[in-house]
Structure formats: structure tokens, C-alpha cells
Amino acid sequence: MSQIAVRLTDHELRMLDSAVAEGSFDSRAQAVRAGIRLLERDLREARIAVSYRTAYATPLTDDESAMLNAALALGVTAEP
Asked: pTM for this structure?
């Protein structure tokens, strides 16, 4: 396991120590690792959101557009 040095503001350190004192974490290191896991999750979710936006921003092909128009003309809906 690697070790790094991090500079924190007084406020950040008080918040970290408070979380440990309240029993949310056993140590500062455990709290920091939990924060990194949250960051990892948030970054993964942001990448997924970008992927969805990109996928839905792709214009329909001519065939897809024709099928959609045909379905609309027949009164097909997505609702049951």
C-alpha cells in the first residue's frame, strides 16, 4: 500500500476529525479512503451520464427515421 502526503485546510481537518470522533470512521485514513471511493463512484457515474447523452445525441439513420415514421403513422406508442 502506498502512502501520500496531503495538505488540508483547517476546516477540512476539523471535519475529518469530527467524523472520526463521532465514530463514523475508525481513523482519518479510513475516512479519506471512503472519500476516494465516493469520488470514484461519482466519476464513474459522470462518465456513464456523458455516454448516455452522447448516445441520445446521435442522429437517427435514414432507416431508423423511416421505421419511426411508419410506427407513428400506424399509431404505435411506447405505452402498453
From this structure: 0.63
Per residue in 31-68, pLDDT (tens digit) is: 999 999 999 999 999 999 988 888 777 788 899 889 88
Query: Domain span at residue 69?
Result: 10-73
Is 54 a member of any domain? Answer: yes
Please spell the DSSP secondary structure of the chain, one letter per residue. ---------HHHHHHHHHHHHTTS-SSHHHHHHHHHHHHHHHHHHHHHHHHHHHHHHSPPPHHHHHHHHHHHHTT--S--
55 is a domain residue: yes
Taking residues 18-22, what's their average pLDDT? 98
